[in-house]
Amino acid sequence: MATILIRGATVIDGTGAPGAAADVLLADGKIAAAADRPRDADRVVDAGGLVLAPGFIDAHSHADNAPLLAETDIGKLSQGVTTEVVGNCGFAPAPCPPGRRAEIERLRGRLFPALPSGWSTVDELYRTLDTHGYPTNTVPLAGHHLIRAAVLGTADRRPREPELALMKAELSAALAAGAAGLSSGLIYPPGMYGDVDELAALAGELPPGAVYASHLRNESGRLLESVGEAIEVARRAGCRLQVSHLKAAGQHAWGSVKPALRLMDEARAEGITVHHDVYPYEANSTLLSACLPPWFHDGGHAATMARLRDPDALRRAERAIAEDDGTWENWVAGSGWDRVLVAGAGDPGADGRTLGELAASRRRPPFRVLADLLLTSELTAWMSVFAMSSDDVTAALLHPRALVGSDGAPPGGGGKPHPRGYGTFTRVLARYVRDTGLLSWEEAIAKMTSRTASAFGLAGRGVIATGAAADVVLFDPAAVADRATFTDPTRVSAGIELVVVNGQVAFEAGKAVGPRAGHRLRPIE
């Protein structure tokens, strides 16, 4: 492995300490020196005027499938990301036991592009991904949806005691294979059918230091109640809590992020380790099927598709959306048909347009357009919803325990996905540091590096220090910026000069370089 000397950069080491000019030597996959006069190197990079930082750590990624793609995914590398936490929102590619294979493949197919089916267990999955190689370092979580579906299928009911024991066994097998914790996605089936007792029982199986990461049951009018539920799970289980992509969605919920943060601060004072992650956009993105009320999903894929063809079920769902009784997360009621943007429905005439626009052009009620798209896409369509206020996003990001997570769609899915998959980290640097001064360079970088490493137990990552992993990003502070948009969502960022993963150059001059250099990391041993 070549040694690389990066000379003359302003080194911001990830700890929050002030940046300082220094030369840094990378050797044998480690940071060998951070001093004024390191020894000679195979390659010298003159970095005057640039900033050298630890590689950014994406606290919330859905790029579980990136190793399986033929081309190296550059969505995260092009932002300076060198490590990703995957398996979020309860979704993961395994387990997939033979007796439930068809049902689970339909379930995970809602999120991921087509996956091979050569594994049944989490261990088999991880070994398969290892053979393909990782563009970035990967920290996988076990997914609640898959664990539940492996035992119960997609039915809306509580597990019986023997079934809960089997779910615990599935989680234990995932942890033994290398999962760093457990994730849930409580607006999606079948995880939405799990209650606090079920989630706490599972999270109680986590070893010390492992994380329970939760996409809350409601990020809208019941945000505070849902934060309280997540805290209660962590309290009963005695585990760390990661609140995924904290937001207040829908105008009626705006202003509730600060009270939610106070709840988490109180839990922290109680002794519960709580962090949250944020992406710096006022639009979220999720599955278009999330617009439907929870009962519509009961029974899994076939039952949901049948309801989309049932006039009575459609009328009932249309009324439920319009009447909005407040018992479920109603994206349309919160933001309106004109703020729901179709992001990937396999329909070029629909992608990049709102449901309101499509309803007008197709002369159909917007609900019927929604149902049509879900039918033709077989529930795989995505949406972006312009649901948040800038004040809430800023409040979430500026909190001292905020981490940064892209929450980008899995790569390879096509359509017009949310630009956060290519722009989250550079947008933080451009908008919140350079352009507005709301964060210092040092504080923003700490949020994206050492604090995330600490939250997930990643020793030797997220800092520039002798002996740490040689994961670094070199960027131009005057030029760094996100360039991905909702109409051009895979445009790479500006100002990222060099990205090194485990001592190997992985991204330079706007493209992936060399063999895939990422490792699967095991914070729990």
What keywords describe this structure?
525 residues, alpha/beta, 9-stranded mixed sheet, 6-stranded parallel sheet, globular
Structure description:
There is one protein chain. By secondary structure, this protein is an alpha/beta fold. The protein contains 16 helices and 21 strands. The strands form four sheets. Strands 1, 2, 3, 4, 5, 18, 19, 20 and 21 form a nine-stranded mixed beta sheet that branches. A six-stranded parallel beta sheet has the order 9-10-11-12-13-17. Strands 6-7-8 form a three-stranded parallel beta sheet. Helix 11 crosses helix 12. The protein is globular. The mean pLDDT is 96.
Radius of gyration: 22 Å
The portion of residues assigned to helices is 25-40%
Largest sheet, if any? 9 strands, mixed
State the end-to-end CA separation.
27 Å
User: What value does the average pLDDT take?
Assistant: 96
Quaternary state, please? single chain
Class inferred from helices and paired strands: alpha/beta
Question: Globular, elongated, flat, extended or rod-shaped: what is the shape?
Answer: globular
What fraction of residues sit in β-strands?
A: 15-25%
